[in-house]
UniProtKB/TrEMBL annotation:
SMART domains: REC, Trans_reg_C. CDD domains: REC_OmpR_PmrA-like (cd17624), trans_reg_C (cd00383). The lineage of its organism: Bacteria, Bacillati, Cyanobacteriota, Cyanophyceae, Oculatellales. Residues 2-118 form the Response regulatory domain. Gene3D superfamilies: 3.40.50.2300, 6.10.250.690, Winged helix-like DNA-binding domain superfamily/Winged helix DNA-binding domain. Signal peptide: none annotated. This is Response regulator transcription factor. Pfam families: Response_reg (PF00072), Trans_reg_C (PF00486). Keywords: DNA-binding, Phosphoprotein, Transcription, Transcription regulation, Two-component regulatory system. Residues 126-228 form the OmpR/PhoB-type domain.
């Protein structure tokens, strides 16, 4: 799941980004409103959630929110702000923010609010996806393999989890390496498509250990897809 974090305070941005990455989100961090708007308009980036600070250089968080809603974009937005007057909270929600968190806050609360946004969003309500014997649980952020009556945990790294999540959310599609690179690696990260192939290999090895070696197919010179025979 990809999240756009817009926060201009370097220490806070660093701390939030770290916490989000521990929760296996893919995080793009913009430090001003204009950069955030460029991320939001990029056709290659699909965000599931956004965190906007209210006070930002160039374009304010509240304006980012208004611009999204004017374009009928329903991306769930959590606003961060030092403002705590009733009128400010009302203005934030009226601008189209889905929730509102006043600084300073505990990171645990931020993460809980994001999970709540995810549950409320019609596009993100799924708590679990299944493909054949593979179960991906969003609440626990873990993957299991169903073996008879038992569910066996497959211990994945963050990147392996994100990769499998992407495949499972696009079950009938052939996914190219470039697509995976754009969707699963942070914007501006200096990696090539051989990194994608290496990560797919690592993921396959973990799956093979649980007897699911043929889950991900390679389609020569096209990309990858989930093996339709596997279901
Ligand atoms: Ca700020």
């Amino acid at each position: 799941m990809r999240i756009l974090l817009v926060e201009d305070e370097p220490d806070l941005g660093t701390a939030i980004k770290w916490a989000l990455k521990q929760e296996r989100y893919i995080v793009d961090w913009a430090q001003d409103g204009r950069e955030a708007w460029e991320f939001l308009q990029s056709p290659d980036l699909q965000y599931s959630l956004a965190i906007f600070d209210w006070m930002l250089p160039n374009v304010m968080g509240i304006e980012l929110c208004q611009r999204l809603r004017l374009r009928q974009n329903r991306l769930p937005v959590l606003m961060l702000t030092a403002r705590d007057r009733l009128q400010d909270r009302i203005a934030g929600l009226d601008a189209g923010a889905d929730d509102y968190l006043v600084k300073p806050f505990e990171m645990e609360e931020l993460l809980a609010r994001l999970r709540a946004l995810q549950r409320r969003s019609p596009d993100l309500q799924t708590q679990q996806i299944q493909f054949g014997s593979i179960l991906l649980n969003y609440t626990e952020r873990q993957v299991y393999c169903q073996q008879g009556e038992r569910q066996v945990l497959i211990s994945l790294t963050h990147k392996e989890f994100q990769l499998l999540e992407y495949f499972m959310s696009h079950p009938r599609q052939t996914v190219t390496k470039d697509q995976l690179l754009a969707q699963l690696w942070e914007s501006g990260s200096d990696v090539g498509s051989n990194v994608v192939a290496a990560q797919v290999r690592l993921l396959r090895r973990k799956l093979a250990e649980q007897g699911c070696s043929d889950l991900i197919e390679t389609l020569p010179s096209m990309g990858y897809r989930l093996n339709p025979d596997y279901c």
